[in-house]
Amino acid sequence: MNEIPQEEWLFEIKPKSSVFTLQLDEVWRYRDLLFLFVKRNVVTLYKQTILGPLWYLIQPLFTTLTFTLIFNKVAGISTGSVPPFLFNMAGVITWNYFTACLTDTSDTFKANASLFGKVYFPRLIMPLATVITNLIKLGIQCLLFLGFYLYFYWQGMSNTFSIYTLFFPFLVLIMGVLGLALGMIISSMVTKYRDLTFLVGFGVQLLMYLSAVMYPIALIEEKMPQLAYWVQYNPLAYIIETARFLLLQEGTVSPLGLLYTVAVTLILFLFGLVLFNRTERSFIDTV
Amino acid sequence: MSYGFTRPQQLYTKYETPQPTTCCHPVEGHNSQLTTENNSTPSMKPHNPHPTTHNEVILKAENISKQYRLGTVGTGTLSHDLNRWWHKVRGKEDPYLKIGDTNDRSTKGTSDYVWALQDIHFEVQRGEVLGIIGKNGAGKSTLLKILSKVTAPTIGSIKSRGRIASLLEVGTGFNPELTGRENIFLNGAILGMTKKEIASKLDEIIAFSGCERYIDTPTKRYSSGMTVRLAFAVAAFLEPEILVVDEVLAVGDAEFQKKAIGKMQDISKGEGRTVLFVSHNMAAVKSLCTRGIVLEHGKVVFEGDIENAIQNYLEDQNSTAHRNWKNEDQSRPKADFIELLEVRVLNKEGAIAINHSIFDEVKIEFQYNILKEGEFFTHGFNLFNAENIHILSSHDKNSLTLKESLPLGIHKKTITILGNLLAEGSYKCSFAIMRYGPFHVEFHEMDVVGFNIIDEFGDKTVRGSYSGHYPGLIRPELEWKN
Predict the structure, then answer these.
(1) How far, CA to CA in Å, does B480 sit from each of B263, B330, B466?
(2) Which of A140, A183, B165, B411 has the most CB atoms less than 10 A away?
(3) If pLDDT is split at 50, 70 and 90, which confidence band does B97 have?
(4) φ and ψ at B114, to 5 degrees?
(5) How far are the Cα atoms of B61, B104, B142, B153, B281 from residue B135, in angstroms, in the given order?
(6) Alpha-carbon gap: B26 to the closest alpha carbon of chain A (Å)
(7) What mean pLDDT comes out for the span B306-334?
């Protein structure tokens, strides 16, 4: 590229970009689009439904109720001093946020192929919009949680919010990034190998049982010590467990486990970002 | 627009296709044939009607090639990917880049890989409107996709000095649940506008679309025409430095199309925007573009003045000066008493010819077979130009066959088109057999033959010695008197 001085060209379209051009500045330039997508996602989701955004609340409410009946009343899992209902709800809400981020981003390319095939904008906008949309959903569900929390507090529950509760948003961030990272990796690979679509469906369900959603980590260590490493190596288990600790002062916080979670999240995120950026250049030919 | 007599005539360069060997290498270090780029096409410059045009290359495509794999993505994909990866690890070239056929849909190739685009070079000046024309499957859409960053080229690069916005479809990302107003914002943002920009143009957009009344109604309640109008309105107010437009003008009703073309002209002419325009509508291409490139089977076969580009594109169409059905009794155009056997385009010497000088007469001879006696009929002839505009129609209104029955067997009828009547370009003819009283068309065969009128200078022509662009659908010799 000698004949044209470099600075004269604004940009260049090439077959392959270097691995680490993440074009985050471009994402920033398209921030308006990001928020319009979020708005679209929120506004259109429950159009022409009678209950509207109430569906955001009904789903976790009934999941929590079911969990409480089956795991606590029937199976008798102990949740310490916390009412089982609240224990489960904390787990369900945080778990839901993660899975929503993962499953909604995991078909980014496939679901938006017709849009992506017609116009260019940083593809990362799409999964980001999904994660933010789910954040709004999480916020609404947290209000529901707060309602029940106050109810049980009034009923004489001993656990209260503490200074640690302020770290909850940090945890949400880790979860969002982790969901986004896995979603990006899967969505990139799905463009060529559709097998992964099936994996995500039941994989997420199986993962829930390994992520200490409806039981404390301590319980599995006590009851099934030989299999506990499945849970101990699962970064999500630490997130859920920590979430419950931050919200309910129940359970354990493992600083090492958290550090491990953050590290895994960051590595997966970087890997996902690189893969996603590579895929977005020509996925339209294979999707 | 007004056709000023300004554009240079006959100024074009037949595009030299680069050597095929270049396609097999990665782009780095592959600019040997591009070193004289800045003045490679001096012939396009002398009369540029755009006041804002500077001699500055705003966009430059070098060696663009795009390879596709045929068949399904599935079995074999993984093995090829692994093989590719293995070559890369050892620092070798991608083994699949060396193979691949030229993109010709109708012939069966030998390779699973096909080059949808091969060695595309072109430059676009700031303020220029470049038309990209070619038949279906010539690679236009692939090129547009690469330009708009929807997909990356396999090899080659495009360098740009301006931001590119693409309009490959109107209404991309429209959500039927959202209102018209919400969709304007969403669609505008998808096309690269900021919220602020859209808000400042919102009133204009709504006014242009003519959907004021429905603007706060979900677009799923719109008629399809309204949706398209709204979508085009958003796109019309895009303000990128380079606009890439696909066949988007072919939407809406005639009135709206006129409005859309007018808006496109404003964008390209008035505002001096650089536009790359793809269309099958030659009239639109002609009225909007200043320069054109013709693609064929993924290669640039012509680059130059838009008139000549269109000519080049059209000449290649499958028109023929001689059609003969004598050996194909199934496909003959026919009615119960008559069938067409042969049509020939003849020059003044009486020989079959496809090219005719603008001042020479063109004879078209129809040969048909009478199958049943006692029928009264006549002949009709229609002439269409390359843009499919119906130039003229002629009935053989005084034909003897209207009063007298022809005997069984082969008969001929010849029509003569005078010299100095048609403008230069390609023409297609249709032939009909009709009855009068009551009027009835027995058959009307389109595209029976075609011919080209070649422009020339000189006393025998209407043009005379004038060398500029000579507009008009027809070019008859008329008398000027004091």
Answers:
(1) 37, 52, 17
(2) A183
(3) low
(4) -135, 145
(5) 21, 11, 13, 21, 12
(6) 9
(7) 80
Q: Which of B73, B156, B168 sits opposite A118 (nearest CB)?
A: B168
Distance from CA of A183 to the nearest CA of B (A): 21
Residue B368 has a pLDDT of 94
What is the Cα–Cα distance from A210 to B357, expressed in whole angstroms? Answer: 84
The pLDDT of residue A265 is 93
Cβ-Cβ contacts under 8 Å, A118 against chain B: 150, 166, 168-169, 172
Does B27 contact A43 at a Cβ distance shorter than 8 Å? no
The alpha carbons of chain B give a radius of gyration, in whole angstroms, of: 27
The ipTM value here is 0.82
Q: At what angle do helices A31-45 and B195-209 cross, to 10 degrees?
A: 60
Nearest residue on chain B to A14, judged by CA atoms? B157
Q: What whole-number distance in Å separates Cα of residue B390 and Cα of residue A133?
A: 56
* Residue B255: pLDDT over 80: no
CA distances from A173 to A101, A153, A168, A179, B160 (A): 11, 27, 9, 10, 38
User: Is CATH 2.70.50.60 the right assignment for the domain spanning B322-454?
Assistant: yes
CATH class of the domain at B12-30+43-163+240-315: alpha beta
Q: List chain A domain ranges.
A: 24-46+53-285
Contacts of A30 in chain B (CB under 8 A): 189, 192
β-pairing, B440-454 vs B355-357, is: parallel
Helical spans, DSSP H, in chain A = 24-29, 31-45, 55-67, 84-105, 108-111, 113-116, 125-154, 168-190, 195-209, 217-223, 228-232, 235-248, 255-280
Residue B172: which of A30, A33, A119 has the nearest Cβ? A119
Between A8, A13, A44, which is nearest B153 by CB?
A: A13
- Spans of all domains in chain B: 12-30+43-163+240-315, 322-454
Q: How far is A194 from chain B (nearest CA, A)?
A: 9
pLDDT band with cut points at 50, 70 and 90 for residue B77: low
CA–CA gap between residue B399 and residue B387 (Å, rounded)? 31
Contacts of B60 in chain A (CB under 8 A): 4
Least confident span in A8-12, A145-149, B75-79: B75-79
How many interchain CB pairs under 8 A, A with B?
A: 114
Interface test with A, best of B93, B124, B151 (most A CBs within 10 A): B151
For the stretch B452-463, pLDDT in tens is 888 877 788 888
Radius of gyration of chain A (CA): 21
**Euclidean distance between the first and the last CA atom of chain A, given in angstroms as a whole number:** 33
Task: Report the sign of the C-alpha dihedral through residues A212, A215, A221, A226, in that order.
Answer: negative
Name the helix (H) or strand (E) containing B409: strand B409-417
Closest CA to B423 of B377, B359, B347: B359
Instruction: Using a CB–CB cutoff of 8 Å, tell me whether B166 touches chain A.
Output: yes
pLDDT surpasses 90 at B35: no
Q: Which residue has the tokens 């107003």?
A: B181
- Other beta carbons within 10 angstroms of residue B292's beta carbon come to 26
Band of residue B411 on the pLDDT scale cut at 50, 70, 90: very high
Question: Which among A12, A40, A120 has the least Cβ separation from residue B150?
Answer: A120
Interface test with A, best of B154, B166, B190, B247 (most A CBs within 10 A): B190
The residue of chain A nearest to residue B198, with distances taken between CA atoms, is A32
